[in-house]
Design a protein that fits this description.
By secondary structure, the protein is of the alpha/beta class. It is built from 11 helices and 8 strands. Strand 7, helix 8 and strand 8 form a beta-alpha-beta unit. The longest helix has 17 residues.
Length: about 300
C-alpha cells in the first residue's frame, strides 16, 4: 500500500450500511475520498414498503452523515433490486415511491437494478426502472446475475438499448472475463467487483486492464454484509502498480472513470471531496452522533471554520 500513498480513490459500489465505523476510518486512511452506495438486498426479504422507504431515507440521510464524519463524500443510487422484484405486490408499492427519491440531492443514478434469476417479474421492473432513469436523466447501475452471467449481461444491454438509453449512461456491473469484451464493444461502462472467492480477484483484474486498457473500465468493492473487503479498490491499485501498469491507467480505473460516468447525473462536484474533509464529529444528525458515551469528537485542525 506504500506504493500508492497519496493517491485518491473513488469506490462506486460499496454498501456501507452493512459496515462499521472502523471501515470508514480504514477507507479514509487508504485514500478513498468518495463512494457510491447502491440500494440493495439486505439479506432477508422485506415485508412492507415502509421498510424500503426508511432504507432509502437512510441512504440520503444518516449514512451520508456517518460518511462525512470520516471525511468521505457519500453518494447513492436508488432502485428496486432484482431479487425483491419477484415479490410483485411489494414491488408495485416500491415503484410508486421511487420517483420521490430519484430527484434528491446526492442521488447519482438508478441502481442497482437488473437480473438475478432472470424471471419475468425481474424483467418487468427492470424495464420500468429504465424508464424512470430516462425520465430523470440519470445513469443506470446494472447488477448482472451470478448464474448464467453472459446471457444475463447480454439481455440487460439489449433491453436498455430497446428502451432508447445511451450506453454511455449505463454502468454494467460485476463483469468478468466472459462479459467484458462485449460490454466495451457495445459502448457501455464496464465495472468490476473485487470480491473474495466469487466475482473477481484483483490478480485477474490486473490482467484485464493489461488486455483491455483503462477506457470505460472501473473497479469497486461492493463490500457488504458478506465476506468482502472495503479496501478492495486501493489494494487493487497497489497490485496494479506492482504489476507495472501505468499510473495514469490506475488513476482512470480507480478514480476518474467512475466520476465521469456518474457525474452525468449533475450531482458530483469534485470540490466537495475537499470540503467534506473538514471533519467535526461533534455534529449531530437528527440528534444522533457517531460518538458513544464518553468518546471525544475529532475536530479537524486544518479547517478554517471556527465554531
Amino acid at each position: 500500500m506504500e506504493r500508492i500513498k497519496g493517491m485518491r480513490f473513488f469506490d462506486p459500489h460499496i454498501h456501507m450500511t452493512s459496515r462499521t465505523t472502523d471501515d470508514y476510518q480504514a477507507l479514509a486512511d487508504a485514500g478513498v475520498v468518495a463512494i457510491i452506495e447502491p440500494a440493495f438486498w439486505l439479506g432477508q426479504p422485506r415485508t412492507g414498503v415502509d421498510t424500503f422507504r426508511d432504507y432509502f431515507n437512510s441512504l440520503i440521510g444518516w449514512e451520508r452523515f456517518r460518511s462525512s464524519q470520516f471525511g468521505i463524500k457519500h453518494y447513492c443510487t436508488i432502485g428496486l433490486n432484482s431479487k425483491e422484484a419477484n415479490n410483485e405486490r411489494l414491488a408495485e408499492a416500491v415503484m410508486e415511491i421511487l420517483p420521490s427519491f430519484l430527484y434528491k440531492e446526492g442521488v447519482v443514478g438508478v441502481g442497482e437494478i437488473g437480473f438475478d434469476d432472470q424471471t419475468p417479474a425481474e424483467e418487468k421492473y427492470y424495464r420500468a426502472q429504465l424508464e424512470l432513469a430516462k425520465e430523470a436523466g440519470l445513469p443506470v447501475q446494472i447488477h448482472t446475475p451470478h448464474r448464467d452471467k453472459k446471457k444475463g449481461t447480454q439481455r440487460s444491454m439489449d433491453i436498455a438499448l430497446e428502451h432508447g438509453l445511451d450506453p454511455r449512461m449505463i454502468i454494467v456491473d460485476h463483469n468478468n472475463e466472459e462479459t467484458v469484451k462485449e460490454v466495451l464493444d457495445r459502448g457501455f461502462w464496464a465495472a468490476f467487483t473485487i470480491y473474495p472467492f466469487t466475482k473477481m480477484g484483483n490478480e485477474r483484474m490486473v490482467e484485464i486492464v493489461k488486455q483491455y486498457g483503462s477506457e470505460r473500465i472501473m473497479v469497486n468493492s461492493a463490500a457488504d454484509w458478506g465476506i468482502s473487503d472495503p479496501l478492495a479498490v486501493p489494494k487493487t491499485a497497489a497490485l496494479m502498480h506492482e504489476s507495472g501498469i501505468d499510473l495514469n491507467d490506475i488513476h482512470l480505473v480507480t478514480f476518474r472513470n467512475a466520476i465521469a460516468a456518474f457525474a452525468q447525473s449533475g450531482q458530483i462536484d469534485e470540490a466537495d471531496f475537499d470540503t467534506v474533509k473538514d471533519i467535526d464529529q461533534s455534529l449531530k444528525f437528527n440528534g444522533s452522533t457517531v460518538l458513544r458515551g464518553g468518546q471525544q469528537p475529532r475536530i479537524d485542525k486544518q479547517s478554517n471554520i471556527i465554531r
